[in-house]
Amino acid sequence: MTFGGVEALLKAFYDAYFGSAVRTLTNLPANLQDVVPxxxxxxxxxxxxxxxxxxxxxxxxxIDVASFAVDYxxxxxxxxxxxxxxxxxxxxxxxxxxxxxxxxxGSSPARxxxxxxxxxxxxxxxxxxxxxx
Length: 133
Description:
Order of helices and strands: HEHEHEHEEE
Mean pLDDT: 82
Strand content: 25-35%
Distance between the termini: 12 Å
Shape: globular
Largest sheet: 6 strands, mixed
């Protein structure tokens, strides 16, 4: 798995969990208000280039997950659905050849400022513990 693989792992997991109801992205589109609800996934700890599976930074990445929707209630609900899926269902999953052995919450869902008043953002962070069989 190369750099960016954690985002791909989470995108595959959230796509399977939410189906077509929520788009999972690794980059926000310019027309965000037209495509909500969306969930961008961003790896917080990063290294340039290819990453060695034996590197502890790779095996225990910290990730940030946001929820964007058209109003407070929808974004808040999506944020808690993400938290529930991440903490309750992600552990034990093997996706793209990598197994998630544990998940730790770094911060619970909380509203985050966003310049576009047509969109409300919530976000949370997690640390994943990964292994490769």
